[in-house]
Amino acid sequence: MPRPISKRDDLINAALVLFMKKGIKGTTTRDIANRAGISEGTIYRHFSSKEELAQKVFEDNLEKFWRFLRRELRNTRNPEDMLCAFIKGIFEFARKHHRRYSFIFSAHQTELRRLSRGKMKPKRMLARILRLGQAQGYFRPMQPDLAAAMILGMVTQTIFYMRNGLIPVSYEDVIREVAQSCLRMIRTETLAGS
Amino acid sequence: MPRPISKRDDLINAALVLFMKKGIKGTTTRDIANRAGISEGTIYRHFSSKEELAQKVFEDNLEKFWRFLRRELRNTRNPEDMLCAFIKGIFEFARKHHRRYSFIFSAHQTELRRLSRGKMKPKRMLARILRLGQAQGYFRPMQPDLAAAMILGMVTQTIFYMRNGLIPVSYEDVIREVAQSCLRMIRTETLAGS
Amino acid sequence: MPRPISKRDDLINAALVLFMKKGIKGTTTRDIANRAGISEGTIYRHFSSKEELAQKVFEDNLEKFWRFLRRELRNTRNPEDMLCAFIKGIFEFARKHHRRYSFIFSAHQTELRRLSRGKMKPKRMLARILRLGQAQGYFRPMQPDLAAAMILGMVTQTIFYMRNGLIPVSYEDVIREVAQSCLRMIRTETLAGS
Amino acid sequence: MPRPISKRDDLINAALVLFMKKGIKGTTTRDIANRAGISEGTIYRHFSSKEELAQKVFEDNLEKFWRFLRRELRNTRNPEDMLCAFIKGIFEFARKHHRRYSFIFSAHQTELRRLSRGKMKPKRMLARILRLGQAQGYFRPMQPDLAAAMILGMVTQTIFYMRNGLIPVSYEDVIREVAQSCLRMIRTETLAGS
DNA sequence: AATGAATGAGCCTTCATTCAT
DNA sequence: GATGAATGAAGGCTCATTCAT
Fold first, then answer.
1. Which residue from C25, C145, C158 is facing D167, i.e. has the nearest CB?
2. In this complex, is the C-beta atom of C186 within 8 Å of any C-beta atom belonging to chain D?
3. CA B183, CA B169: separation in Å to the nearest integer?
4. Does C109 contact chain D (CB < 8 Å)?
């Protein structure tokens, strides 16, 4: 078995690029096969349908995103650091693996909606960080899921506009500003003056 | 204007519902014609193609969204009030016209990307409010487009999760919390203690 | 409505010819469309699938066969005459509409088996004739369904071999011989010497 | 010979079962390989194509049928006994090896028509019996091929309906009745009263 | 203007066959 | 000899678009 999982990965990679470029419905199996350098029929040796392929692409990317985030958070203990690392992690992932990032945050909102239920581990991770910070007095009391949604939205929307050239600020400054804004939003009152 | 004059509006409404339910590619012209109560061929008397119809649906909704927001902001002068009205306006529009809202904020990100360039007036409106607030000393200095992106993301992501039942907070509390978090994020330092 | 059912009939006729020539599975929708002088898509305006088309072809032929047989039996009262008319009717139908006949008696045995359950009215008609003849003393006592099966088999197998040139006897003689053999087989004993 | 030496027989047996269940066209080489416990490619080491396999299946079954019939007729001399043994032989073969029987008498009529020309030895055997019986005065004069066709039809059709539960008569009675009916049909007149 | 039957390009999927291992 | 991944030619079916009525 020289390259046991290679063809499958070629397929997933080719599909990712095309799904992002033209949507899932807009991508044909022929497109995918051509880009992966295989024949159409071979797709069905690895996946039972185009739909399953799309689902696997999504899961594959989510998994990679998830592992990336966990690595970013490895050496943080302080809830504030954790939050900053989380935010920075998303920005970094989006920069290094933009297609993966983009697929996770756009495809699943329309064509794969039914497949992504309950799979957004990152959002749950964020809520956990917030709860921890609240318990330790770093963050003010607010519903953690609500706060998580807001923070996630801040980050992803900023990335979206940044990618489209609509935010005339350097990459590093954007990350710093987003992280600070975030803390400003959720820090406990008494810390505001510090 | 209870019922539109022409079939054109029937078409746009029928298309909106279906585009949201099944995506643009996933919706057939037959579906649209059936729901609009006309025949397939008639679609092409009003629009040159399905693609143009989709574009017109998007513009139509964006226009309605835009008018709705302007109405919400009519009697505000204070930048903080304007910002709160803006935020509340989006929430209200999303509640009252969820399909329109949803189409604007999700469909265009994938299937209509090329059609929505530079048409997001609301985001420009938000940036203007921020600039105004900064000039009058209400808001701390930050790049207005960046702040606008963050605020827009906070709001839209919150609405998305709320619709999916992932935020266990009452509608009114969510709006209040989002607005306050927003102010907390962008207010000048000296106001923090107030 | 100049020719309201014409296309549908063209389709059924084209399909019949091809199904007989190459089997149902062996016939492509493209073949059918070409022969019917229409485009492939048009098939699906009249039938929801190739399978449904095949079923309708079968039912259509069975219905025509059934009507043909009833007409042949119209002016018979005597059970023996009825039986002879029945046998002659099958031969005649096979000669005049051989493709229809052939489809009824061969296709349904393999590819359409599940569709023809309980639809073989002719066999039930034959059993009824036999029962009547037994009640009136013309035919000897035997299980009518068994006798019907035997007679049907005699006739259809003979037609099959005749079509293939394996029976060197004139058409009229074959019919006469089959009918007489049949009577000989089922007549009551006392009639044997006549 | 409990287990065949080679995979070839495994293949033929697997193919037979599947061809009967789903037709030749309806059976895939993968199905066959799976059921035979070999890999797809191996089929082509034994047969040059699926079509050849099907043909060999047919010939194999016909050969077994033929040998079975000859064995049944071994100890008969009297033409009437031979005929009865012949009829009984078909019923027995159909009962003991129904799939083989069924394949011979149904598959070849549609999907294998071109392959079965002139191979129906049993029918020729039957004609020979009839000629012999006529020469010895047992059977009345009739064209032997025609008589053979009728008898074969009687038997096969009866078996077909019996298998489908449409003939409410015991197996033994059916055989007896068919044999007697047959004799009644072809015996010379003078024997009718006996 | 409106209709809806017809079109035909193209889609996803299947499967007999091949061939490197 | 056997394997099973890969092939690629169809196959059944869909659907945006056209056009005679």
1. C145
2. yes
3. 20
4. yes
| C139 SS3 class | strand
The tens digit of pLDDT for each residue in A26-57 reads 999 999 999 999 999 999 999 999 999 999 99
Q: Which residue of C has its CA nearest to D110?
A: C23
Name the residue among A49, C45, A27, A18 with its Cα closest to residue B25: A27
> Which nucleotide is nearest, taking the CA of residue C39 and each C1'?
E7
Q: How confident is the model at residue B122 (pLDDT cuts 50, 70, 90)?
A: confident
Please check the confidence at residue D107 and state whether its pLDDT lies above 80.
Answer: no
The mean pLDDT of chain C is 88
List pLDDT tens digits, range C139-170: 999 999 999 999 999 999 999 999 989 899 99
Q: What is the pLDDT of residue D194?
A: 42
- The predicted model gives C92-112 an average pLDDT of 82
- B90 and B149 fall within a common domain: yes
Q: Minimal Cα–Cα distance from A91 to chain B, Å?
A: 14
Residue A26 Cβ under 7 A from any strand E atom: no
Identify nearest nucleotide to residue D40 by CA to C1′ distance.
F4
Lowest mean pLDDT among B110-119, C17-26, D105-114, D184-193: B110-119
Give me the domain span that covers residue C42. 1-47
C22 touches strand F (CB under 7 A): no
Tell me the pLDDT of chain A averaged across its residues: 88
Q: Do the domain assignments include residue D52?
A: no
C90 contacts on D by Cβ (under 8 Å): none
Interface test with chain A among B114, B146, B159, by most A beta carbons within 10 Å: B146
CATH code, B163: 1.10.357.10
CATH of the domain at C4: 1.10.10.60
Give the count of domains, chain A: 2
Write the CB contacts of D26 (distance below 8 Å, at least 6 apart in sequence).
C25, C111
For chain B, say whether A29 makes contact (Cβ under 8 Å).
no
